[in-house]
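subagent[fold] <- orchestrator: predict structure for attached chain, return C-alpha cells only, no commentary.
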Amino acid sequence: MLKTILGQVKEFWRDSLLTPVFMILEVIMEMVIPLLMAAIIDNGVNKGNMKYIYETGLVMTVVALLGLIAGMMGAKTAANAATGLAKNLRGSMFENIQGFSFANIDKFSTAGLVTRLTTDVTNIQNAYQMILRMCVRAPFSMITAMIMAFMINSRLASIYLIAVFALGACLLLIMGRATRYFKQIFPKYDDLNASVQENVSAIRVVKAYVREDYENERFTKASGNIFRMFSKAENILTWNAPLMQVTVYGCILAISWMGAQMIVTEVLTTGQLMSLLAYCMNILMSLMMLSMIFVMVTMSTASAERIAEVLEEKSSLTNPENPVMEVADGRIVFEHVDFAYAKGSEEAVLKDINLEIHAGETIGIIGGTGSAKSSLVSLISRLYDVTNGSVKVGGIDVRAYDMEVLRNQVSVVLQKNVLFSGTILDNLRWGDKNATEEECIRVCQMACADEFIKQFPDQYHTYIEQGGSNVSGGQKQRLCIARALLKKPKILILDDSTSAVDTATDSRIRKAFATEIPDTTKLIIAQRISSVQNADRIIVMDNGRVADFGTHEQLLAGSEIYRDVYESQTNGGGDFDEEEGKCEAFLECLPTRCRRSESEGALPHVKGGKK
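subagent[fold] -> orchestrator:
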C-alpha cells in the first residue's frame, strides 16, 4: 500500500526531499535561540554589558529570520508536494478506472469511487503535507532539545525524559483505540454519497412519487452514522489536550522548583534555567505535533488502503501480446458460449450459445426480462469475456483483437442512454471527434433526430445539460443512435434503444439503416415485435438460451414463444406498423404543434386509443 501511494509522488520528489531539509534548518535555528537568550541574560543583563546585549541580540535576530525563511520555504515545498501527490493520485485512479472492464466496475460502487477520488485523496494530501513537515520537524526538534537540555543540566533534563515516555505511552493507547473507528468511517461516506447522488440524479422521480420525506430520512441516517463514528473517535482523541497540558505544566513546575533551588546554591544560572524552560516547551510541543500526526496518519491509513485498492486493481480484460489491428467485416459467430458475471458462479447467464450472423444482416433479438439479451450482445464488443467457448468477429476471436480497434468497429447504443454536458455537436462527436457538422447532420437525419434539433433556437449548438435532462427520452435515444452511427461501425448494436420513440419514428429509423448502412451488421434488441419483424432473422432468447432463430414467418410457424408474443401485441391494436402508410400520412396532416409533440415522443392520443 505505502509503495503504491508513494509511487505517485513522481515529479514532486524534489519538493518532498527539500521540505525535510528546510524543517531541519528551521529547528536548528530554533535550538540556537535559547542558548543566545541564556547568554544575553548571564553575560549581558546580569553584568550590565549593553554592547554584548546588542551584538548578541543582532545575532539572535538574524537566526530568527533564517528560521522564519526556512519555515516558509518548507511550508511552500510541502504544499507543492502534497497537492502534487493528490493530483497524481486522482489522475492515476481516474486513468485506471477508464481501463476497468465492466466486471471491475461492478466490484466498486459509483459512490465509493467518487469518495475515493475526493474525500480519501484529500485525507492523503493533508497527511502527506503534515508528515513532510511535522514528521521531520517534531522528532528532530524533540531530540535536539533533549540533547541541549542534558548539556545544560542532566538532572533537570531527566524530568523531560520521564515525561516523554509517560506521555508517549498514553498517546499510543489513545491512537490505538481511535484507529478502529476511523477505519469504519470512510465506508460510511460511500453511503452518504450514494444517497446524494441518487437523489439528485433522480430528483424528478422523487418528486413524482412524493418521496422527499423518505429521501430526507435516508440522508439523515447516512449523515448520522458518520456523525456517531466521528464522535466516538473524537471523544477518545479529546484526551490528547488535557494529557499534554498536565504534562507541560507539571514539567514547568518541577523544573522551576528544582531550578530555583539550584540557582540559590549557584549550581545553575538564571539564563540556563530560562533555556531549560524554553527547551521544555520545545520538547512538549514536539510531542503535541506528534500526537496530531498520529491522528492524521490514523485517518489517512484507511483512505490510503481504499485508494491503493483502486490503483492496484487490474482490468479483467487485457490486450494480447500481438493484437489484431483490423476488423475484416461484421460477421459474428458464437461457438458454444457460456457466460457468468461472477467467476465460479454455479448458474450461467448464457448457456451453450451457437449463432452465425453474416456481415450486413439485420438481426432482431427479443425475449422476456432477464432472458440475457443484453448479456449476449455485450460479449461482441468484449465488454465481458466469455466463461467458455468463443465469440468471433470478422472470423477472429474477439480476445485476439486490440480492444480499442474492436470497440471502434462495434458501436453500441445501450439501454440506459447517456448524454454529457456540452452542445449537441459535442455529444455527437463522441462517435468521431473529427466529424464535420455536415456529417453530424447526416447521421441525425438517419436517426430521425434532425427534425427536433432544428426546432431548438441554437439547433446543433444547443447546450445539453448533464445527463441530457433538458431533452426527452425519445430525443435522447435518437441522439445516442446518431452518435453511434458517426463511428461508421461494421457492427451496430441497438439495445432496446428505440423504446422511448413512437413506432412510426422507429420504422423510419429502420428504413434509414436498411438503405444507408447496408453493409453494417445490425443487431436490434427490442420488446416490440414490430421493431424486429422486418429483420433478416430474429433470435428468440429464453432463460439464457437461444430458443429459436429464423425469419419472422419461420418463427410464426415454428416458435410458440414468438407466436404468443406476436399475437398478444398485434391483437391489442394500435400498432403503427400495421398500417404504416396511413400513419405517416396522418402525421403529415397534423398541425405543426402536434407534429412537434410527436417528434418529442409525446404524440397526443385520438379517439379509440389509437395514435
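orchestrator: received. Logging for downstream: The first strand starts at residue 332 and ends at 339. The first helix runs from residue 2 to 6.
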